């Protein structure tokens, strides 16, 4: 995500801690996750990060740009933490059931933006961009496992399963339940991977 044309290298923290920009984006994610996207304004972000209202505008300009950049950060962090890209089925999505409150704020932001995009209160392109990011990462795992998916339909299926499990995890708050469901998702990956390799060689895998 590009930076505001008015923002320079002075944005970086000299003390090794988070930069002002990072603190502002973390405030956006926190407010959206705890209170809802409708509560994210220049003033609320400024108050949460303990900076001036004008400084928030200096960094992001519009509210839409601020939300877009926060979403970009949230999706990137979530993809890394969840571990969507792997050649080992046993580790696929192993970080999905994280109980971390910061993780939930990131995910709540994404769900909020998707719902608001559908309602038309924010640009739905924001949600599509985040969805496409997840789909692309899942596609890499399918390719690594030898699962053919020319039309992206398996990407969509696996993303739908994971997306639904994230919501259910928030509702039921049971790591054991979520992990058990994830293992069924992995079972499907194993089946598809074995089937693809058998189809390609004419023999069961390992023969």
From TrEMBL:
Keywords: DNA-binding, Transcription, Transcription regulation. Transmembrane segments: none annotated. PROSITE patterns: HTH_TETR_2 (PS50977). Residues 18-78 form the HTH tetR-type domain. Residues 41-60 bind DNA. Gene3D superfamilies: Tetracycline Repressor, domain 2. InterPro entries: Homeodomain-like_sf, HTH-type_TetR-like_transc_reg, HTH_TetR. SUPFAM superfamilies: Homeodomain-like. PANTHER family: HTH-TYPE TRANSCRIPTIONAL REGULATOR BETI, HTH-TYPE TRANSCRIPTIONAL REGULATOR RUTR. This is TetR family transcriptional regulator. It comes from Blastococcus carthaginiensis.
């Amino acid at each position: 995500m590009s930076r505001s044309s008015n923002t320079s290298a002075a944005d970086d923290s000299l003390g090794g801690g988070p930069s002002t920009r990072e603190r502002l984006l973390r405030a956006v994610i926190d407010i959206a996750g705890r209170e809802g996207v409708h509560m994210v304004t220049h003033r609320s972000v400024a108050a949460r990060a303990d900076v001036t209202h004008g400084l928030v505008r200096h960094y992001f300009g519009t509210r839409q740009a601020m939300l877009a950049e926060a979403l970009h950060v949230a999706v990137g962090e979530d993809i890394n933490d969840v571990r969507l890209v792997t050649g080992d089925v046993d580790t696929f999505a192993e970080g999905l059931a994280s109980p971390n409150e910061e993780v939930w704020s990131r995910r709540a932001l994404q769900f909020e933006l998707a719902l608001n995009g559908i309602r038309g209160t924010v640009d739905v392109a924001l949600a599509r961009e985040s969805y496409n990011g997840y789909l692309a990462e899942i596609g890499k795992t399918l390719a690594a496992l030898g699962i053919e998916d020319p039309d992206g339909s398996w990407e969509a299926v696996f993303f739908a399963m994971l997306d639904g499990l994230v919501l259910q995890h928030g509702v039921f708050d049971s790591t054991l339940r979520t992990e058990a469901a994830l293992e069924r998702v992995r079972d499907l990956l194993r089946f598809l991977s074995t089937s693809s390799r058998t189809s390609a060689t004419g023999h069961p895998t390992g023969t």
